[in-house]
Each structure stands twice: as structure tokens, then as C-alpha cells.
Amino acid sequence: MGRNQSNGKFNYNNIQKKDKNFMYDNFKNSNGYNCDFEECNFDFVSFRGAHFKKCSFYNSSFIGAEFVGANLKGSKFKKCKFENTVFNSVNLDGVDFREAEFNNVIFLESDISAAINIEADDIGIRVFNEVPEIIISDELRNTVEGLKENKYIKDARIFDTKNGSINILTVMILLENFNEERLIRGLNTLKVEITREFHTLSYIIRLLEKMF
Predict the structure, then answer these.
(1) Are β-strands 3-6 and 9-13 bridged in parallel, bridged antiparallel, or unpaired?
(2) Cβ distance 93 to 71 under 8 Å?
(3) Rounded to 5, what percent of the chain is helix, strand, coil?
(4) Potential cystine with 208: which of 77, 142, 148, 186 (Cβ 3.0-4.6 Å)?
(5) How many other CB atoms sit within 10 Å of the CB of residue 166?
């Protein structure tokens, strides 16, 4: 079977998609089963709510990609490259990371013990069993909460959680890349300047980097 798309969702079943460029695509709530995505580019892709089970991503790239609430059960990521990648609340049951390359990759509330060929102390990854605790100034908190006034930022769901509270992981990552003063100034600018749809935190980081 081939690919069907409706309402912005991708549905792949038993297909082969080798050496394809999916950079910047939005795979939110998409589905894939028993598919071959060998040597594909998934840089800066959002897999929020996606279900890709028993798929092979051999030697593919996931720079700046984000897996949030995704189900990757039984999939294989042999020799894949993960850099500045986030796995948040992801089902990793039987997922194989054999010979994968990790650079600044975060696993939050994702049980890596259920995966294969990856350990919590592997170089290049950080594992958080629960949301980390960080101190946020009132000014930064107010700035982040004010971002919801921008429709596109609000729709991206990058800065908030399901219950409407601030996404602490997002703030933590941003503070690791920018000092608070610049971050506040940059976010206030983006609140006005972002006028298009986007899907990942990596997009925000790239815009902020251009400012500074």
C-alpha cells in the first residue's frame, strides 16, 4: 500500500521510502506500519502523537526532530543520527538503537529500558524520569505565558503542556542555549514577528540564533 494523506496526517503501510527528504515536514498524529525509511532525512520534523510501529529508519537523520507522545514500538533506528533530538513520553518498547549516534539527546518520561542497544549512561543522551525542576524568574514566566497571544505559537503547543502549564523542558532547553536576558528579549520579538505555522522547538531556537 502507498501513502495516504488527509487533514495534514500521513499514513504509510508496508511501503518502502528510501533516501527521501522529509526535512521540516509535520508528522503530527501520523501513522506508519512495517515501512522502510532507509537513509531518509527527518531533520526538524515533529512526530507529535505519531505512531510508527515496526518500521526501519536505517541510517536516517533526526537532527532537531521531536518525538512527543509518540509510539515507536518495534521500530529500528540502526546507525541513525540523533542530534538535539527530544523524546518526550514516547513508547520505546522493542525499539532498536543499534549503532545509533547521539549528540545532546533528551529522553523525558520515556522508558529506555524497554528499548534495545541503548543505556541511560550512554554518551550524548540525558534521561529524565520526570519533568526536571528548574527555577524560572517571574519575568521569564510572564514572557512565556504571554506567547499564547500569538496564534501560531499557541497552536504549535511548544510552550505549554496538556493541562495548560508552562512546558518546563522547553524552557530548560532554551536556557541552555541562551542567557535569560537575551531569551526574554528574543521571545518578546518572536511573539510579534512569527506569522506562519511551525511545529518544533528547533524552529524557535534557529530564529533566536539569527537574532544573536
Answers:
(1) antiparallel
(2) no
(3) 25, 25, 50
(4) 186
(5) 16
Give the chain's mean pLDDT: 94
Name the pTM for this structure.
0.92
- Using alpha carbons, list the distances in angstroms from residue 104 to 87, 125, 198: 12, 6, 22
Cα 142–chain centre separation: 24
Name 197's Cβ contacts closer than 8 Å, sequence gap at least 6: 152, 155, 156
Tens of pLDDT, residues 16-30: 999 999 999 999 999
Do strands 3-6 and 81-83 pair parallel, antiparallel, or not at all (unpaired)? Answer: unpaired
What sign has the CA pseudo-torsion 82, 158, 26, 212? negative
φ, ψ (nearest 5 deg) of residue 66: -135, 120
The grid coordinates listed for 80 are: 541513525
Residue 155 and residue 151: Cα distance in Å, rounded?
A: 6
pLDDT-based confidence at residue 44 (cuts at 50, 70, 90) = very high
Q: What pLDDT, in 10s, does the model give residues 64-106? A: 999 999 999 999 999 999 999 999 999 999 999 999 999 999 9
Neighbours of 116 (CB within 10 A): 14
Stretch 44-62: mean pLDDT, rounded? 97
* Protein fold of 1-130: Pectate Lyase C-like (2.160.20)
Where exactly are the structural domains of the chain? Answer: 1-130, 138-211
